[in-house]
Amino acid sequence: MSVKSFIKKHCPSFLLPLIRVPYRYSGLRRLSYHHRISQTIKKADKFLPYYQDELSKILLADHERFLRTQDENIFIDRAKSEGWRFNGIYAGVGGGYEFIDPEKFSGLVLIYDDDDSDNLKRSKNLLSISDWAEKYRCLTLADFLNNVEVKRSELIVPVLSEKKIPEFFDFMRRNNMFYSHHVRFGNLSSIREDEQYFDVFEPVDDEIIIDAGCYDGATAINFLKWGQGKVKKIYSFEFDPVNAEICERNLQPYQDKITLVKKGTWDKDETLHVNPSGSSGSSVRSEGNVEVQLTAIDNVVKDEKVTFIKMDVEGAELKSLMGARNTITKNHPRLAICMYHKLEDLYEIPEYILSLVPEYKFYLRHYDSNYCELVLYAYC
Fold this sequence. Notes:
The chain is α/β, with parallel strands linked by helices. It is built from 14 helices and 16 strands. The two termini are 34 Å apart. The model has no long low-confidence stretch (mean pLDDT 87).
């Protein structure tokens, strides 16, 4: 039991508000988090015998090391050792990530602070294996604030600590430099999009695929290409109304094969109120004034012989697997499940899959230059 859970269980409820603030700013909070990490790693390691190759075990060890150190250079170094080369980079924009094509800019300028160089080191490490490798330069925040020239054709990326960002914002506004299409905030990242979900399994005849969390529909279309004529049907689930509208347009030419379900996947039918973000990071955990529908996969596919389930549903993977209990138990479909959104995903997801069908075996693959896009593949 974590320190936080212990306090909740044994402390009278009327005292909790008095404890919450001191707890947040004391060492107990950090102690509780490190305890959770230790327990997560211990439980995740129990499933090592189910992983079918050495790479899977190495990738699990990488993620466990990241949990201990929070050093994302672990993943960039792995990418380098495997000979990855990225066509471009991604940068955090509005709750999601946006692909930044180097062909659209004359160069990239990293704005950093001497007192906090970790973000700079990581960003330079990533850029060295991307098509930006020869097109970036670095400026200290002090030099930038002293009006060192930055061209309008250059992409500005501040890799600054949270306390320095307001100073950067203020300078941009005062000097009328706030060009939204030339500034990206947040960590840089990159991903092997063309391989994710398609590099472990080969298609079989009459594929019936669940694409849970289809975002803009691109993955569903790629499943059709991967299937080489063997895909019978795809059910694409998307709960975010903004994304669902985009999916409807993008998938219209494929409606004979792809059925768009404008609902999120869950363990039961339910209605929630959210703030849709229209990004790849839309989550059922948000609260807002837009009503969305959630449903169990079992309730949609019923007796269909599902052969493949892919899930990237921003932390709702375990609940969604529970909603596919009958489908998994009956059909033993191959699974491709993202398991990086929650700390406990590393053990709760494989644990639940094995509770349904003990014969499942696992592969683990990683597709990003940070901790994201860790995918558990399962098959019988």
